[in-house]
Amino acid sequence: MAITVLTESELRRSVDLDRSAVDIVAEGFRALARDQAVMPPVLSMAMDDRHGEVDVKTAYVRGLEMFAIKVSSGFFDNPKLGLPSLSGMMTLFSSETGRVQAVLLDNGYLTDLRTAAAGALAADLLAPQSVGTAGVIGTGLQARLQMRALHLVRPFRRLLVWGRHSANAEEYAENLRGELGTEIDVAASAEEVVRHSEVVVTTTPSQRPLIEAGWLHPGLHITAMGSDAEGKNELDPQVIARADRFVCDRRSQSAAIGELRAAIADGAVAEDFACDEVGAISAGMKPGRRADDEVTVCDLTGTGVQDTAIALYAYRRATEAGYGTFINA
Fold it and tell me: Residue 250's domain spans which residues?
């Protein structure tokens, strides 16, 4: 049996962060909302002494010929070694036989792509129709991708960025100015970012809140990306309690490893706190943004259905382009 092996460089040449990638991820979310997918809880392993973590995610979508199992690692001291913090790979299995069909050695590229695409989808569903100023908290790769993604669906005119290290924020702004062609300013604080933006995205592995409830203002939308494991927390629990609406990619995940977990543990909201999921809104089962002055918060913990969606999409694009090495197993 031949197994297709695709390298990171081949995958990068085949798929990019564009509307097609956003649409593919949206299809996965809609399948989840319509009970057309089987998605187990995330398997997560913390390696505190190494400042690292490893997550395993998967989902089977009925009707698709393959499903993916993704192993993703985050080792946050890697930049000191000149290495990226995130890595990983995806394996595609036949939905008919369970046999391995392909190994995608993406080194986390597809995870980065589908995470950014989910951010674009959340903004498209929940952000104000017109965005003058966007804000980002964080200065890493995902912070760059999230702003590229946001610009696809809400072409903002100005961007405010804040990071714990001002030098990193300055470098971020310099690099992204040419790419987006927008005004980009470094903010003096996270508070400045929130108070002066219509849309804010958080992209950090922070274990303490970075956004306070007192900074919320009418018309604001926040997408929190960083809380994807127990112990992580970017939002003051009262942010969720005071927002007009809280949305997440998967409620069970948000309650286990995301911002909802922190809010419940703090007592800011009840354990049965009601929220909508991105897939239900994308599928038209729930409304999107309901009013211009609505304050909305979306927590994206990262789902296995995104991984299956992007892996199969990337596999098809890459093999259609003639990429891949074949091994017999």
Answer: 129-302
Other beta carbons within 10 Å of 286: 16
> H-type helices in the chain, by residue range?
8-14, 19-33, 109-126, 141-153, 166-180, 190-195, 237-242, 251-257, 259-266, 278-282, 304-320
Q: Is residue 229 pLDDT above 80, yes or no?
A: no
What's the pLDDT tens digit per position in 292-302? 999 999 999 99
Chain centroid to CA 303: 9
In a domain, 26, yes or no: yes
State the Cα–Cα distance between residues 264 and 309, nearest whole angstrom: 31
Give CA–CA dist 244/234, Å, rounded.
Answer: 18
Same domain, 134 and 39: no
The CATH code of the domain that includes 107 is 3.30.1780.10
Give the residue numbers marked as catalytic: 70
Is residue 124 in some structural domain? no
Q: Which two tokens stand for residue 187?
A: 């903010």
Higher per-residue confidence, 231 vs 190: 190
Q: Residue 202 belongs to a domain with what CATH number?
A: 3.40.50.720
Question: Which residues are within 8 A (CB) of 13 and not within 5 positions of it... i.e. 6 or more apart?
Answer: 318, 321, 323
Q: What is the pLDDT of residues 116-131, one digit of tens each?
A: 999 999 999 999 999 9
Residue given tokens 């395993």 in the structure block: 56
